[in-house]
Amino acid sequence: MLTISEIANLVKGTVEGPSDLIINGLSKIEEGVKGSLSFLHRSDYEPFIYTTQSSALLVSNEFIPQQPVNVVFIRVANPYLAFNSLLEIFYPPSKHKIGIEKQSHIAEGVEVGVEVYIGAFAYISEGCKIGKGSKIYPNAFLGKDVIVGENTVICPNVVVYQNGIIGNQCIIHSGCIIGSDGFGYTQNAEHQSVKIPQVGNVIIEDFVELGSNVCIDRATLGSTRIGRGVKLDNMVHIAHNVRLGENTLVAAQSGISGSTDIGKNCMIGGQVGVVGHIELADFTQIGAQSGVSKSVTEKGTVLRGAPAQPLREQLKIEAMQRQLPDILQRLNNIEAKLKEILKK
Amino acid sequence: MLTISEIANLVKGTVEGPSDLIINGLSKIEEGVKGSLSFLHRSDYEPFIYTTQSSALLVSNEFIPQQPVNVVFIRVANPYLAFNSLLEIFYPPSKHKIGIEKQSHIAEGVEVGVEVYIGAFAYISEGCKIGKGSKIYPNAFLGKDVIVGENTVICPNVVVYQNGIIGNQCIIHSGCIIGSDGFGYTQNAEHQSVKIPQVGNVIIEDFVELGSNVCIDRATLGSTRIGRGVKLDNMVHIAHNVRLGENTLVAAQSGISGSTDIGKNCMIGGQVGVVGHIELADFTQIGAQSGVSKSVTEKGTVLRGAPAQPLREQLKIEAMQRQLPDILQRLNNIEAKLKEILKK
Amino acid sequence: MLTISEIANLVKGTVEGPSDLIINGLSKIEEGVKGSLSFLHRSDYEPFIYTTQSSALLVSNEFIPQQPVNVVFIRVANPYLAFNSLLEIFYPPSKHKIGIEKQSHIAEGVEVGVEVYIGAFAYISEGCKIGKGSKIYPNAFLGKDVIVGENTVICPNVVVYQNGIIGNQCIIHSGCIIGSDGFGYTQNAEHQSVKIPQVGNVIIEDFVELGSNVCIDRATLGSTRIGRGVKLDNMVHIAHNVRLGENTLVAAQSGISGSTDIGKNCMIGGQVGVVGHIELADFTQIGAQSGVSKSVTEKGTVLRGAPAQPLREQLKIEAMQRQLPDILQRLNNIEAKLKEILKK
Q1: Contact B143, B165 (CB under 8 A)
Q2: Whole-model pTM above 0.90?
């Protein structure tokens, strides 16, 4: 519980209205209740500020209400960032456990750092190393010789196959499968698929977060590599020998095919497919549901569509598609007129 | 084993042919064997009735065969529903277990109702409550303070993160991840992603069924909410703060982005993507593989395509696309004729 | 460690350069180091042969370098196959464990063959049979009456529901869910979904490999059937009553809807959707991200697009779409000219 003026101090804001009201929680603007603080970030949520039951509202320094409001304003440069900074104060993250639960399985010789948690039914194979402060939740499986860095969280039911390497400060959400075999076969004369041995591994650098049920395949040879600070949303598929550059973001249900090399700071929307053996330059942005089939060489290119085009071209094409019935009508008219002209 | 006349009684049908034959199982029409009962529901399966080995066939009251048949008809109003009602009679569901298996982990103070099953290697954290008659299968994980209602089935290897609430009479299939963190970051000046704390939860109301490997993210703040009677197919992705209204159905591999509010009784096809922060009216229907980027305000709207259009428009556009080569040809002809005219 | 001439003997190749150099590992051409052997398979990787640090290179008999090279050539008919055959020699697969770990749960009466491995926290229900040499990894769950053939590997955290049958020599990667209920409901008068009992099972024939987090639903009645030699990539969805013919390949994140019957030796790209109740002929090929809504009757048909068209048609349509802005311009020109003509 904090007063409005205490909150204003924390976020370096200025108060418009009574500053001694008590705030005891945060809420979205459309779910505000007495005693809660909300924020206005997107202009399409503005109508809610005239009806919200929240006691206080973070708004931008420039915001001018179009109607009278019944809520205290705290004006800040960026209401979204200010609100996020308050989340951790009002809802401090629950402490992770420390210690090794009895029903876990830890092979002989595994190296375990201080302040580590290993939950019941977690299975740690021979040769593993788990760094200081890392947490291995129940029902997780670490294969032979897996290395987990420091202060990394492996959530329940994660599987890391043999030789996987996971850095420091990572969060691997439940159901992720790291290091299963890539989809690699050759066809024999009878059209049967002969498995190509997948003998590489997966390397996940520091500060990576993987959403639920993400699949990252081991390299055929060498390493599939997830760069520092990469964030993948739920159910992303990363094929063998892919590389994702630092800080790249991939939204849910997208898939990157084998041996593709994606640059730093790229942003890839949801349900995107990227073919194998291409390269995307740093800062490439791909719209949702796109299909990318060619390398992108220019930094900061924005693509959309399937097959993906530069955004401008794609928007033109999409607009044209909606005009197709009109185009056909015009074509009919022209042909009719021509016929008349030629009759004369 | 039932006679045809006993079955006819159960489904309130009328028999055409010998009614004392014994039926000892059910089968699809194309897989019929002597002694089995099948049904004809879709007209494209009609050819099978002239070749099926089944002994009896549920057909509609109106059905008129085009050739002689060698199978007893049981005529009913709706053969599909009649057949489904027989499924439970011929194949009674296997009884769930009751009791707590020794190798499970149940934290102190967990409340467990009567007739509950908790399988080996299931992990139930502090503060959980499990209602009467619910079943927690092996290798499932319930985080801190998870509440499971009555007569709900949590299949093997499901993960429910802390504070998740699951209603009564739900079925959560294997591999579902409920309540992992939403995909929420802000970018700092170095283009790194700074995690926004995800402090809300997931609420699943009564009578919900989730297919395998479904992912539902916790809300940033407040609750991601899955309405009463919702059914999700395998690998559906539900992002943070989404709401799904009562009885809505979502087919496999679709994804709903953050804060989107989907009405009651909607039907969403497979591999659909819906952007964040929009609303879909009740009874909206979305065709498979569509990409929905705008709110739908009118009840019962039917959309298809990417970007999704009203079905009628979309069908026109798709038809036109197939005509494009023809359109180009006509354009060439017109230009040739014009040239001639202008020469004169 | 082998000499170049020993390797040339193994792959039946001819050496160009010093044949007594020692090779101690394999590497991709772009990651070559001293002592490693690489291969040149795709012409777009040719530039690397002039800069690679590898000591030796498998190239085709016909290959003619365009610049001087600093690496020993081993010429063979197919460098790719030759390289794959060396992978198993340089990186012999790690031996699977044998034996039953104490913390596993094996119901009374389960039949377990010789040389089987059952890991800790694996749960084997009543009535299961596990064939000779098969491996059930930790945290896997086999429901009632599941049958696993010989020399099959069930990776960690796999779930097989009751009555599932898995053949010989299969590899089921982590997180696969085999035999959960299909997505089958009827609607009652209140628009609620009434579950159709799903009483069939899943049959997986011999030599099948399933990628991570694949979901295969049990049949409503009868069996969902995965043919001998089928390979599915990560997160493929197979609905109830689907059949996949022998040797068919399905790339990541594709989904096959209920009761569809796919022929032998088909190749289905990534993120493809196939509607229910259709048939695809043997050797059908479907491009990535396609949407297939009609049966394919001709063997060897190649389809692409959504809705999928024969490849030739689809390429034409895609080319035309890119010409749309040009088409519109031409239309404008024609209309202007016509106007002028009609003025005269």
Answers
A1: no
A2: yes
